[in-house]
């Protein structure tokens, strides 16, 4: 018997819950220190995120971004690769979406544009992941380093493109022209009866994100490719023994990962902004790492973690509006604590729990 | 011999989570004796020694050294109590000299010079007293394994060890080197040192120890005077039932050649030739054994044939195909297509993904078979059915294909690999160290399967560092030394003869 065995519900339920509780307790202390009432803060945060239709809408909108970037990180995780480049891949993904929309928005309805935009987003994101993947697979250049670098390259490239190449002529803004209706995804408000998300831009991309979750689950646990990805991730030597090509596995996995990250741009560009603009990713790619960690690289966990971070984003915005002493920066502190406890300190409570459950099992075995 | 025992352990208990690794262990080791501790892998020998050396702390129980009750929180206090340990995997700095290695951690001051001179004198004294001759200025990586081990022993003695623990010391030695080690141990004993020898080899226990204690499943099941016991009694005590120590088999009926290698040369990543111009063939219905001390190119040979490692030159004939290895890169998938099974030497590193449930490992390498996948999706039902069948046929325990592979014992993990490779019914089976870390009961089972494979007119190429295994199973024995095949012998070759070949000493003209 492995000493580290825990019941599944503990592994996937109790531990994340404990981590979260710890994060909120410490956050509460920070709030106390700056002289506010933590209980009140929690109330405002929860109300802001879930208390009214528009709040829920924004929470879901942000969650959609996190689903895509979280899935991207998770797929790479399964192959033992740490894709820090979600930020850049999503940014470049915007390019693919924008090209499809700019080309088609004046001639066809949105549902014709949509598949082209999806393919464009995925291809652009995948292309941006390809070079780091190739370097890792053939030259051994560490993918963490190269994907971080590619985030910077993406940022600079996009500024150049938006200012000098595809920016709207005659405008001082580094952005493209606004898409017509043929380049806009419908808001959930528009096609779900009785839904009232107010002005929240939550849109069809949420459905796309959930489909992507199912797709990733199928890929990882039900396909031969997923089997190869997991084998390679868990034991590269055994994978080679089994005739699985490391080069192919690394490249294919990173293409999928980059494609998923790129699809985040569907939500922001085609779903909400309706134009390509600079810095629309603003950290969603990085938070995706925390989402994947917290969600245990499993699609269901990722959806839950994405909604949690959506709540923090939206509730946090509401909070800084309602309680002026809690600034935007305080919200970042709270998010940082959640990431710290859920991600970096993931195994903090584990040893104690393992001991507890082992003792219980032993006692049960002795008395039973 | 009377007087206070050197070591006395009383009711030692150690748990790792649900595993009770040491259960109420009592042990008395007489001063100035060689005391063997024998048991299967996982019996708790290493845990017990780690407690004695301060790596682990016992949950309860007492340790008494030379009559004084002590606590050993770390290896430093073990050393100060006069306990020295020679690890299975040497703890030496390869590019340091012998002298530098010996004083490492006991330099005796910030300035090296004084300590070094003193150490040199002390080394000379130790060498004379115990016949432990090593050149103090030799660089460790240039020394043969046997001498490196001697440096480890010197290291312990230099720190004033009176009690010496040796953990599986002969695993990396040739028979001759092992004999030499035993002579050293006898000298040490005669000079009043106490030696604790951990091993799973019965032969060594019989050859060298004064007293032997047997461990089984975390318990000390018996202690015997070595002169009053026998190999078969010890084996029975280790396993808990009587076992067959010899392999029973009929005369081999070899027929057509199923695998032939000509002039195979392999160069490793450092540019060193590890397999040099090797040629041999394996016929259907025979087991060809490759004997040799580990690190003489056997592993590389096996990996090259399996398609994992690239050859620099050579020709491979298998399944009616002739492959020029200088021109063409073969890969493991292709070799499986050519009906070659491969049980790798290291099942944890290579043969299994231990974090997978058992059934997923049942198809590792065969996941492309149409039986298990339609090209995109896996057929989980078919995979689980295969796993279930293999579990039944190979008596894999616990019989649960959903269990994580890491939670199976070493012997059962090996059976998972064997079942996977044999059940595909390959024409040629490559087998590396099939019983390393496997308990005696499973060894018997695995050997039977390999013989069955042979009797079903398949070719088996067996690589093992266990000479007994090679001699028991093989119909022909090839000996590898320094990347070359230095001799071929029949199964009745004596251990001494093979030992000489393994050590690179040219045998009598054959």
Automatic annotation (TrEMBL), chain A:
GO terms for molecular function: transmembrane transporter activity. GO terms for cellular component: plasma membrane. Keywords: Cell membrane, Membrane, Transmembrane, Transmembrane helix. InterPro entries: ABC_transp_permease. It comes from the Bacteria. It is found in: Cell membrane. It is a multi-pass membrane protein. The chain crosses the membrane at residues 12-35, 55-78, 90-108, 114-135, 142-163, 202-221, 276-294, 300-319, 331-349. This is Nucleoside ABC transporter membrane protein. It comes from Roseibium hamelinense. The lineage of its organism: Bacteria, Pseudomonadati, Pseudomonadota, Alphaproteobacteria, Hyphomicrobiales.
Automatic annotation (TrEMBL), chain B:
Keywords: ATP-binding, Cell membrane, Membrane, Nucleotide-binding, Repeat, Sugar transport, Translocase, Transport. GO terms for molecular function: ATP binding; ATP hydrolysis activity. The keyword Signal does not apply. It is a peripheral membrane protein. InterPro entries: AAA+_ATPase, ABC_carbohydrate_import_ATPase, ABC_transporter-like_ATP-bd, ABC_transporter-like_CS, P-loop_NTPase. Its main location: membrane. It is found in: Cell membrane. It comes from the Bacteria. GO terms for cellular component: plasma membrane. The keyword Transferase does not apply. CDD domains: ABC_Carb_Monos_I (cd03216), ABC_Carb_Monos_II (cd03215). Residues 7-242, 259-507 form the ABC transporter domain. Belongs to the ABC transporter superfamily. This is Nucleoside ABC transporter ATP-binding protein. It comes from Roseibium hamelinense.
